[in-house]
Amino acid sequence: MRNADEASTGPKAAFFRVSIPAVKRGAGPHSSALRASLRRSAPLLALLAFALAGAPAARSEDAPRPFVLTFSNPGARSLAFGGAFAPLADDATAAYANPAGLVQLLRPEVSVELRVSGALEDDDATGDPTVKRANGLSYFSAVYPLRRFSLALYGHQLAGIDIEPPGEEGPEAVARTARRAAAGERLSGLDVWRLGVSAAFRLRDDLSVGLGASYFDGNVELAPSDDPDAAGRSVSSNDWTLNTGVLWQPAEQLRLGAFYRQGPTLSLGRLGATPCAGRECVEASLRLPDTFGAGAALRSAGGGLTVAFEWDRVRYSSLVAGLSAAALGADRLSLSDANEFHVGAEYAFLRLDPVLAVRVGGWLDPDHRLCGAAADSAYRCETDVRSGEGHVTLGFGMAFKRFQLDLAVDGSRAEVTTSISGIFSF
Q1: Domains (range + CATH), the chain
Q2: DSSP output for 351-419
Q3: I want to staple 139 with a disulfide (CB 3.0 to 4.6 A). Which of 80, 113, 212, 394 is the partner?
Q4: For the segment 156-211, what is each residue's pLDDT rounded down to a tens digit?
Q5: What is the C-alpha separation between 116 and 362, in angstroms, rounded?
Q6: d(CA 231, CA 188)
Q7: Is the omega angle on the peptide bond into residue 354 within 30 degrees of 0, that is, cis?
Q8: How sure is the predictor about 403, in pLDDT bands with cuts at 50, 70 and 90?
């Protein structure tokens, strides 16, 4: 849902935009129009009820929470769509999600997002590591459109997490801890910010491409594997990466999008106990995952309903080399790449002023646990088969003439995330 006063630069440029002046020229919000809008939104409301009914059941399952890192797109609207945003990319967060979408913006925009995440704790301890995410400002951007060309500057918190070690008690746990290599280290925290610039160009009225470059400033925290309470160390480093995207509109109500995002490489410093425990000191690095994906979005003939789907491939296996090096070969780690599936829907009440949109979505976070083969591994995994973590997303947005406010929540059996974002246009 987007607002725009001016006409677009091409016949298909405003695929997902809501023209508020056109709404004001209509009959205006009144009871009969509202009832008609509610009737048209019945399928979406049914999907919303189904999602709400399924969420408690998902949380009630008693499942372990092992070491899992997950990276999501910024923006409350993207979160409410279940992350299916690459084929939409119609606000300032497109600078990260799919830079090709920046050409859809008709006026200069500034966007800010605040995000809060936390783990859902069970009454009985699972004995598995838990991940706590940092709260606060997670994204900001500024976009300046120039007819067929758009330029964006943005900042994004890719990761801000503290990883707690497994809670272990009793003589068996003490013996297992004592067997761990004293020189080995485990990941205990990760804080990564990016500053990026993205540009988009409209090749044709139905086709646009985008390219971006990002500067990453990362801080990796490592702690001794043999003592969860011991003080660790912190290593700061930086890196440059690229991201790119494309948007194609083969039909009036169909949009296709694809993207590729390169993950940064962060230093782990010199590995091993000082002075390297009689062995040669080794410099190692941690490569965060590359991600690529594609999706499709469909809008109804009346313009109120939008449905989107996205498939992402995340190369989580790139984390193994660095974390294995930090363990100094004391642990055989395994981590697989993953396919994520995202789906979302939005219904906009176009006759209301301000325009109101309700959203619902979901996505599957597949099994990508970091597992160690050793019985005394710092990354212990249960032996059961984990098919993945289902997420349910809900949200709404309000579009005024020069301002848009979006709120969203993403819930699973292990974690809940809330987001609020605002977009100011000039």
Answers
A1: 2-425 (2.40.160.60)
A2: TSSSEEEEEEEEEEEE----EESSTT-SS---SS---EEEEEEEEEEEE-SSEEEEEEEEE-SSEEEEE
A3: 113
A4: 988 877 776 655 444 444 444 444 444 578 888 889 999 999 999 999 999 999 99
A5: 18
A6: 10
A7: yes
A8: very high
